[in-house]
Amino acid sequence: MQNMRIGELAARAHVSTRALRYYEEQGILHSERTPSGQRVYGEAAVERVRLIQHLYSAGLASRTIALILPCVDTGHAPPEMLSSLHTERDRISTVIADLEQARRRLDQVIELTEHPDPEHCAIVRDAAGRTTAIAGVAA
Amino acid sequence: MQNMRIGELAARAHVSTRALRYYEEQGILHSERTPSGQRVYGEAAVERVRLIQHLYSAGLASRTIALILPCVDTGHAPPEMLSSLHTERDRISTVIADLEQARRRLDQVIELTEHPDPEHCAIVRDAAGRTTAIAGVAA
DNA sequence: CCTCACGTTGACGTCAAGGGCAAGTCGGCG
DNA sequence: CGCCGACTTGCCCTTGACGTCAACGTGAGG
Q1: Residues of A with CB below 8 A from B102's CB?
Q2: Strand D contact with A59 (CB < 7 A)
Q3: Domain extent at residue A90
Q4: Does B92 touch chain A (CB under 8 A)?
Q5: What percent of chain B has pLDDT over 70?
Q6: 3-class DSSP state for residue B2?
Q7: B1 belongs to a structural domain
Q8: Under an 8 A CB cutoff, do A108 and B68 touch?
Q9: Could you tell me if A21 and A41 lie in one domain?
Q10: pLDDT digit string (tens) for A24-35?
Q11: Would you say B17 and A99 are in contact if contact means Cβ atoms under 8 Å apart?
């Protein structure tokens, strides 16, 4: 139970076995092998795969993930990598901001559809283009 | 100056002309045409393209965008679309949460690399897997 | 009139993240 | 022993969001 093969890991991490082999091919997920060549994973691999998925959904490419994963493992990075870490961090922050703006747009549509309010309506629609001063309304 | 052709719009919205034609092909960006067939856009198109980019970076497919954009325009949605709006909204929220978690991971690595602190270190690494109670540390 | 940058459509290329199939191997069970 | 499901590698296929190239039209300046 402590060690599992690829099928079980796939089931527990909710990904396909194909994806797991792909991750290994990209160098971001490692496995032990039985003498006959079958992949064997420990418990930690489940959490590992979840982290990989988070980074993927953060828009990081597998090459980038391959770069930073060792740093996450060891808990520190070679100093020359710091700038690229900062770059990725900033990119993620930008994406988050964009997402939050998009979500506010959706919220406005949902709000207006669920509670059609002619008076309120003009105000919100007029403000839709701008970023600031909406948070309070949308929240 | 009030009307622009595709090149100017592309420059002002920081996308390629190819992307703009692609958006039109997907039915998410419309244009007037001159008698000779050239695309003509008004000022609003710049903001429009930015919104499209936000929705793309939110992971929405162009078909989905094509569905919800009219709602954003009119300010309301046909009721039968509400559930899919909520679905997309929730998906965006999930992506944001994943992104924030990924950013916290990066922050930890950056923090540890810039200020190697053996005592602090074990605490942070131990907390890396969990979502809650980290925000205060990361912020 | 000529030029030349900008525009048009259409078709094909690319790249990432897998999906799917083929052909063979492994391993546990009756 | 034979069986069968899970596993292996290798290979090509798919999807989405464009890039790129070809072949041609447009329109303002000199």
Answers
A1: 54-55, 58, 60, 92
A2: no
A3: 81-138
A4: yes
A5: 82
A6: coil
A7: no
A8: no
A9: yes
A10: 999 999 999 999
A11: no
